[in-house]
Amino acid sequence: MYSKINIVFYYISLYNLLFLNLNKEKIMKELKTFQKKHLKGLAHNLKPVVFLGQNGATLNFIKSVDQALEKHELIKIKFIDYKEKESKLKISESIVKETNSFFVSMIGHILILYRQSSDLKNKKIKLPLNE
User: Fold this and answer.
1) CA–CA separation, 68 vs 50, rounded Å?
2) Is the entire prediction scored with pTM above 0.85?
3) pLDDT (tens digit, 0 to 9) for every residue of the chain, 131 residues total?
4) N or C: which end of the chain has fewer CB within 10 A?
């Protein structure tokens, strides 16, 4: 039948699955202000990974943002051909909806997004739960 080690690993993996899903739901409804501050601090030294030009938020662009979020969790996107803040905010909202990510901040032409990676190997950022 099953060895004791297999049973222990089964319960550990079941616990992790349940705990991570509960934790993800608790954290992922909305980012709190102190969590955004934490993420802004982590993003300070990052360079933009994706650049948004005159073609706008195309399907390929959304795919590249999605892949970058899965790999890095926290990314910067640089707006190249957009000068008006309103247009950048509208595009940012659509990117956030399409990628199921969180808007952290927009400073100038740089958008910061966060999404917890579903791959355990890529989970690098642990959000604070309390201030």
Assistant:
1) 8
2) no
3) 445 444 444 445 544 444 444 444 433 468 899 999 999 999 999 999 999 888 878 889 999 999 999 999 999 999 998 888 888 889 899 999 999 999 999 999 999 999 988 888 878 888 888 77
4) N
73 Ramachandran zone, left/alpha/beta (phi>0; psi -120 to 50): left
Determine how many CB atoms are found less than 10 A away from the CB of residue 106: 16
DSSP secondary structure string, 81-126?
S---HHHHHHHHHHHHHHHT-EEEEEETTEEEEE---SSGGG----
3-state secondary structure of 68: helix
According to CATH, the topology of domain 31-122 is Translation Initiation Factor IF3 (3.30.110)
